[in-house]
């Protein structure tokens, strides 16, 4: 699997489908909607060039007039997966993902300018006692001094894994790195900036006391990654909880979303936890049925309410939209039933207060299309669009709103099914 990024404006009602063999960015002018419906870019650069020239010549316009570009990053022949993308203050991009090479995993990072031209790219490896060890990225944030931090997971003591946080300058040089954890298995899933200038990392802890229970773990650090506290904010006897995303509320405290199996049952439910700034539990809610439901991302709306998106499993996996007050009381709970599988992976609050969600739909058991959907504050679908070629797996994994008001979608894409590297 590889990495794709698409930048588009609200007016762009038809996405361009992209066949990406390595990490890439596709940027499309909003004017492109005047001329095309989905265009399939081929693996071969020659075929890509021919397809583009055919399109532009038939429309009697050129690429410069359309203002679009497409770039490819990474190393040929390696399995590379998307994790996160941000826009930098100079309007370029920082991309992070992971590279699976042989028996080891390392971080891929790249910085581009506003037009997608590579400024630098790196394969970040961690070596202990002359041996490469596991290192993966979960999230990336820009720092106040213009650098960036990567949160992820690395090999810790013995065979265990720990939370990992590292800061790099804008040239990709390591400034510091920190590790958090002990003899248990800790896996980071997200990081957020905090109002005091530090960071909060959340993830999942596997109980090391001879059991296999999963617990939500959070680590608060200062701006230099020094640990201020580490806590499991809620422990429900006999049940498993996992964290997938976190935000800091404008009124203080944090909301962590993920899943729980509600006392050890076979099913999972959406799990939403509110904790104070010191990490202590305030309230928690669970939603869902008896199968596999989970929350995947969370945003705070313009009124301070909490909007969680996730999956509800009935006959298929459907989108679950939940809106709560800051005190955890219900406002909206909607399930969007669909005859095909749909998974929403990431959400962003739009300038008008609506919520835009990126994810994917399975068009058949071996094919999926990345999808972008806009919801009202009441959970009603305003519009939804797909991107993806019929014979590929395309998964939208991240989304944000850039400085020009465009939606930037990052994700993972394969080539033909026969080229899959799992």
Explain this structure:
There is one protein chain. The protein has 2 helices and 31 strands. The protein is mainly β. The strands form 8 sheets. The protein has a 5-stranded mixed β-sheet, with no helix packed on it. Strands 4-5-6-7 form a 4-stranded antiparallel β-sheet, with no helix packed on it. A 4-stranded antiparallel β-sheet has the order 10-11-12-13, with no helix packed on it. The protein starts with a strand and ends in a 9-residue tail after the last strand. The model is unreliable at 12-69 and 416-422 (pLDDT under 50).
What form results from the Cα inertia axes?
globular
Strand order within the widest sheet?
A: 3-2-1-31-30
Approximate helicity band:
under 10%
Tally of helical runs: 2
Strand content: over 45%
Structural class: mainly beta
- Rg result: 21 Å
The low-confidence runs, each spanning 5 or more residues with pLDDT under 50, are: 12-69, 416-422
**Terminal Cα separation, in Å?**
7 Å
Main beta-sheet annotation = 5 strands, mixed
| Topology, number of strands | 31
């Amino acid at each position: 699997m590889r990495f794709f990024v698409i930048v588009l404006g609200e007016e762009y009602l038809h996405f361009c489908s992209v066949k990406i063999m390595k990490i890439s960015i596709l940027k499309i002018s909003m004017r492109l909607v005047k001329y095309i419906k989905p265009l399939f870019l081929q693996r071969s650069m020659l075929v890509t060039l021919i397809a583009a020239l055919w399109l532009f010549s038939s429309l009697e316009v050129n690429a410069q007039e359309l203002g679009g570009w497409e770039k490819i990053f990474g190393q040929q022949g390696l399995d590379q997966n998307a994790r996160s993308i941000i826009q930098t203050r100079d309007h370029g991009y920082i991309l992070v993902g992971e590279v699976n090479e042989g028996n080891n995993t390392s971080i891929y990072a790249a910085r581009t300018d506003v037009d997608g031209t590579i400024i630098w790219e790196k394969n970040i490896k961690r070596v202990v006692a002359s041996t490469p060890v596991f290192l993966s990225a979960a999230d990336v944030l820009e720092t106040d001094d213009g650098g960036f931090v990567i949160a992820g997971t690395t090999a810790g003591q013995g065979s265990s894994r720990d939370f990992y946080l590292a800061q790099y300058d804008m040239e990709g040089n390591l400034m510091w790195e920190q590790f958090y954890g002990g003899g248990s298995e800790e896996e980071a899933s997200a990081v957020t900036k905090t109002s005091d200038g530090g960071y909060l990392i959340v993830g999942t802890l596997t109980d090391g006391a001879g059991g296999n229970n999963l617990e939500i773990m959070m680590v608060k650090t200062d701006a230099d990654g020094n640990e201020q506290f580490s806590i499991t904010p809620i422990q429900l006897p006999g049940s498993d909880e996992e964290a997938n995303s976190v935000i800091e509320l404008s009124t203080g405290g944090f909301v962590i979303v993920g899943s729980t199996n509600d006392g050890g049952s076979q099913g999972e439910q959406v799990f939403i936890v509110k904790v104070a700034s010191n990490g202590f539990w305030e309230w928690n809610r669970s939603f869902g049925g008896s199968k596999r439901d989970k929350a995947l991302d969370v945003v705070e709306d313009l009124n301070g309410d909490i909007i969680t998106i996730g999956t509800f499993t009935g006959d298929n996996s459907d989108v679950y939209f939940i809106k709560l007050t800051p005190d955890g009381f219900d406002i909206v709970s909607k399930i969007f039933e669909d005859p095909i599988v749909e998974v929403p992976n990431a959400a962003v609050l739009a300038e008008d207060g609506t919520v835009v969600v990126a994810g994917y739909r399975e068009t058949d058991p071996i094919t999926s299309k990345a999808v972008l959907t806009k919801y009202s504050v009441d959970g009603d679908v305003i519009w939804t669009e797909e991107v993806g070629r019929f014979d590929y797996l395309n998964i939208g994994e991240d989304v944000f709103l850039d400085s020009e008001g465009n939606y930037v979608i990052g994700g993972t894409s394969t080539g033909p099914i026969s080229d899959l590297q799992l």
